[in-house]
Amino acid sequence: MKNRHAKIISLILILVLAALSFINCGDKADSTTPVSGTTAAEVTETQPETELKPELPDADYGGKTFNILTAGNWSNDWTEIYDFTADEQDGTPVNDAVYIRNRAVEEQFNIEIKEINNMGSSVGGTGKGGKFIEKSVMAGDNAYDASQMGAYDVSVLAYKGYVIDLNSIKWLNLENPWWDQKANSDLTIRGMMFYTTGDISTLDNDCTFCILFNKKLIADNSLENPYKLVQDGTWTIDKFVSMAGSLSRDLNGDSKMDENDMYGFCIWQDSMMGMVNAAGEKFATINNDGNIELTLNTEKTVNMLDKYIPLAYDRNLTYSIYHSKDAIENMFANDQVMFYTRYLCIIKKYRNMDTDFGLLPYPKYDESQSSYYHTVAPYGCSFICVPMVVQDFEMTGAVLEAMAYESVDTVTKAYYDITLEGKTLRDEESSEVLDIILKTRVFDIGQFYQIGPYNERIMDLFRKNDTDFASMYAKHEGAALKLIGEINDAFAEITE
To answer: According to the model, what pLDDT value does residue 423 have?
Structure first.
């Protein structure tokens, strides 16, 4: 009886589809109409799936522990996020997303994901983080299946040969969209990719440069709408400097500018690096021959800093970390600062701010510049890498690829849509700016490899109120070129 009913229902569906096809057809055939004699079910079954999925093995790894070493500058207390650890669901969006992602991958491959956490400022960038992998490789103990290593350390591990080319690992496909394609283009050396990031991590988002602005101060002072400037492509360094320099005033009449007064701008020293990248320039670049070359000393770099420095150095216009490190964040919350340059992670600190605030990209060099550009902070960011000695490279490739893929609709969604847009940013325009910022990131290999190290030296200009970029550059050019030569020789040997 059920079969008979099914046949009748199928016949009815066919007749209905045929009738609809006849009604919708005119003199020109509808390309979406099923071919005569084909059922709706058959059409559905033959249509290709639109969602891209990874190519992964149907593997059971027998309950093995997948050990991920994390060793970078920032502690998890600062970012409020553990990229790989979530022991249980606690109602926190990103934690719960990591939990769901991890359980899905664990069940898929019959493994246990374990984070070996060594995050903190006493590790990353000091060489201590990299020592964990160096010792493991030298001992051949297979201690780690993968690592998320601080940028300063992982770059050294790469040219010293302690981490493997990710492109060589089976099942790991960095061309898939859940891996950062900007990282691919900026960090690939001689066709090899030694470290990367993507949806598998949120730390790279937290470490991306941005500007916050106080909407009340913009309105109270009848200034142009920054969102419209961004949308029109006219949010330039000249416009930023003009607006930021127009607001400062002595609120309490004591004839001195301090944390009790009003400022157009609040600054940390690393914004000097951000302004170089914002102009579309890099400290160093990988050329067509696969070699690193020094590219900091350009006309655009010099001009960008010449425009920025008068504002950044003026302690009457700009409140800096060198006024008071403790006061700098509170002043923005207290409506005493209009613009604040920081990283995206700072947004979470203003969840309870009474005044509405918005998010802006770093300014362009000029209106003819085709894009905005945003530094990924080398001090704070960490990258996925794989030690040269691993027990099962295929398992590592499969697990990392699966984790990155599963993160798209779990971890990234929780971070991007809920933690930022849903709870903190209070307008649609800020969400659009967030799109711009994350799509225009710069992975500056000159900063990661500490060439010069010009990243520190350019911040020293700010620390010392020094305007002589040319002398600073010339003084350290020899050391920079020497290090570049050593790194290029090392990579040439690795890739032979």
So the answer is: 73
